Amino acid sequence: ILDDFLKMGELKNKISHCDACFHCMGITSFGQNSEYYYRVTFEMTKAITDLVYSINSNSIMAYVSGEGTSTNENSKIPWANVKGKAENYILNRGLKDAYMIRLGLLIPGDGIRAKTKLYDLFYKLMRPFYPLMKLFPTITTSRKLGLAMINCYFYPQEKKYLDNKKINSLSRN
Questions:
Q1: Is 61 exposed, middle or buried (0-12, 13-18, 19+ CB in 10 A)?
Q2: Are 55 and 18 within 8 A, CB to CB?
Q3: pTM > 0.85
Q4: How far is Cα 169 from Cα 173, in angstroms, rounded to an integer?
């Protein structure tokens, strides 16, 4: 248990080897102070990436980002720039491989609840429509997301930015 994820370096002696990092941790920008959002989204990602690189530069990383992230970091939407900066840091760090999961609409698995009350309400209201929504190739599930991230390790991808369609396809490998 680590109280401050910006102190990732403290874990280096406890983790002797790492082949892959599936970075799924983050927060919504909705209602967040911009400095706090930057700290959690970029600085924490930088700390995790640096730790993985220091343990094994031959590792791969799959980072759950978001649809609409700004690769050029020049969006009028602040969160898109912060996510873009995090993605660019990972991609340029020198790891063996890295994938940016540009997640769009996701149907959560059984028992998974959003911590943001507004998002949780949205998911509760949409639950009766999940069977129909799962038919759309642009919507994915938390299960497919997990499988796709694991499959990035076993089946290297040419494209480094993976949207929901690619997530769904990769989850079937």
A1: buried
A2: yes
A3: yes
A4: 7
